[in-house]
Design goal:
With 466 residues, the chain is α+β, with helices and mostly antiparallel strands. The protein is built from nine helices and twelve strands. The chain has helices at residues 3-59, 65-76, 152-202, 217-273, 278-310, 320-337, 355-371, 418-423, 430-440; strands at residues 84-88, 93-97, 117-122, 128-138, 141-150, 316-318, 341-346, 351-353, 378-386, 389-396, 444-450, 454-461. The strands form three sheets. It has a five-stranded antiparallel β-sheet with strand order 2-1-5-4-3, with helices on one face. Strands 7-9-10-12-11 form a five-stranded mixed β-sheet, covered by helices on one side. A hairpin with a 2-residue loop joins strand 4 and strand 5 (141-150). The protein starts with a helix and ends in a 5-residue tail after the last strand.
């Protein structure tokens, strides 16, 4: 059963319960009040008869029962004294008016001269009567007087009220059912929207939203649902992008392996299957060696990236200036042979660094700058201390990077100039490793470049001050 039908049934049952209790109570109270008023009026009339009999007896002594019967006949001629009267002693009936006397209940055991007995009886014709019974003395004899008063109108009024109540109950039940269903429909409509949104998302429509605008609990659930859907869509998009990057990585890696492996296999097969001159053998061996070294560099770069992603960064107190001075001293002589000048300016200070990864970061940035420089170029290294660690900038005055390539240069195997990078032994992994190292230090890496004027790479490392 749907929730809106359950709500309708509950409201209908509640209405029926409350209306039944209220209506039954009202009818019962009205009936009892009316019956109580009739009893009071009947008792007054009955006492009037008794008082009249006693007054007459005191003024005119009755010689026998016929005198009493005659007096009662004169009194009963007045309609105010009830529908029936019956006078009897303990042994015989002395006077009876009306056919209702046959229905009188014997109440002699419940009365005395100071108390009245009261009961209600009905006839086969469904008429109801109030019977009052009392006793009085004439000389030393006790007599009993029964009187019946018609109270059928009270019961008839109750039946009419019950019939009206039933009709009104049916009308109200129908109206309540319609109103409850309409109300439940509008109350549960947001839930239906939420259900539809969940089905749409389950079917792959991740852009669908419930978009329920209300300030109640259902609106709060809707907002939470839409927020969850946003996070889910973002996560799925990120997963798709990660899969695309992974597929691209595998394709690029396969491509990087294919070229040197083809050359190595070709020259190895040439050496194995043919007799070559010493010069050709030396050339083939040299090519195999260079391509093998290239594969070695590629594997080492991939290993460094893997380690940087898996290894937890161990930060220790270190001086960026000392590391840069030491590293520049090792590299500047090789750069001088390529007619490249290495400059560095470092601010003294201490911060928390992983010295091995920090050195790898510098080497890769300098190596990328070297590949972008012609003979006579300049590489500048500058470091400064910050509140959260240090900032390192590596600049060159080389050929620069196109603006459309800046967003992709940290992707694995991405190269701005593929032919030049491959010729220089690059695999497009250096800046990927640099980005991972910056992330390990809770930092970032950014690039500023202008074609024909050079590039500046800034690494903000936020491992903390020492």
């Amino acid at each position: 059963m749907k929730f809106r039908l359950k709500t309708t049934c509950c409201m209908l049952a509640l209405m029926a319960l409350l209306y039944s209790a209220g209506g039954s109570t009202l009818i019962s109270v009205t009936f009892q009040n009316s019956l109580l008023q009739e009893k009071r009026a009947a008792k007054e009339s009955y006492r009037t008869i008794l008082n009249t009999l006693q007054v007459v007896n005191s003024l005119d002594d009755w010689n026998d029962e016929k005198d009493i019967s005659k007096t009662l006949e004169q009194l009963s001629a007045q309609d105010a004294f009830g529908a029936a009267l019956q006078l009897h002693s303990q042994t015989e009936t002395l006077y009876s008016k009306g056919t209702l006397a046959a229905h009188f209940v014997n109440l002699t055991g419940q009365i005395d001269t100071t108390h009245l007995a009261c009961t209600i009886f009905s006839t086969p014709e469904a008429y109801y009567y109030l019977q009052l019974s009392g006793s009085f003395y004439i000389e030393k004899d006790i007599y009993y007087l029964d009187a019946a008063y018609d109270i059928s109108s009270i019961y008839q009024a109750r039946r009419q009220q019950q019939e009206i109540y039933q009709k009104i109950f049916l009308i109200l039940s129908a109206a309540c059912a319609c109103f409850s269903y309409v109300l439940a429909f509008f109350l549960t409509r947001p839930l239906a929207c939420l259900s539809k949104a969940s089905r749409e998302i389950a079917c792959g429509n991740y852009d669908y939203r419930s978009s329920i605008r209300s300030s109640d609990e259902v609106g709060a659930v809707s907002r939470d649902f839409d927020l969850m859907a946003d996070h889910l869509q973002t996560s799925i998009q990120e997963l798709k992008e990660a899969m695309e990057r992974q597929n691209q990585f595998i394709g690029n890696f396969t491509h990087e392996l294919k070229t040197p492996m083809t050359s190595i296999i070709g020259y190895a097969d040439l050496l194995r299957s043919q007799s070559l001159s010493r010069e050709d053998e030396a050339e083939a061996a040299t090519y195999i060696f260079s391509e093998g070294k290239r594969l070695e560099r590629l594997s080492l770069k991939l290993l460094d990236i893997f380690v940087s992603k898996q290894k937890s960064c161990t930060l220790a107190k270190a001086s960026p200036a000392e590391i840069i001075h030491l590293l520049a001293g090792h590299l500047k002589y090789g750069l001088i042979q390529e007619q490249i000048i290495l400059e560095y300016s470092c601010e003294e200070g201490w911060c928390m660094l992983d010295t091995d990864f920090f050195g790898s970061l510098l080497v890769n940035l300098i190596e990328n700058a070297r590949k972008a420089l012609p003979a006579g170029g300049v590489i500048s290294i500058r470091s400064a201390m910050t509140a959260e660690g240090c900032r390192v900038q590596v600049s060159d005055n080389g050929r620069g990077i196109p603006k459309e390539a800046l967003a992709h240069i940290t992707e694995a195997f991405y190269r701005v100039d593929k032919s030049r990078s491959r010729a220089q032994g690059g695999a497009g992994l250096g800046l990927t490793l640099c980005a991972e190292i910056a992330k390990m230090h809770n930092g970032t890496i950014s690039f500023e470049s202008e074609e024909g004027r050079g590039t500046t790479v800034t690494a903000d490392l936020k491992g903390g001050r020492a």
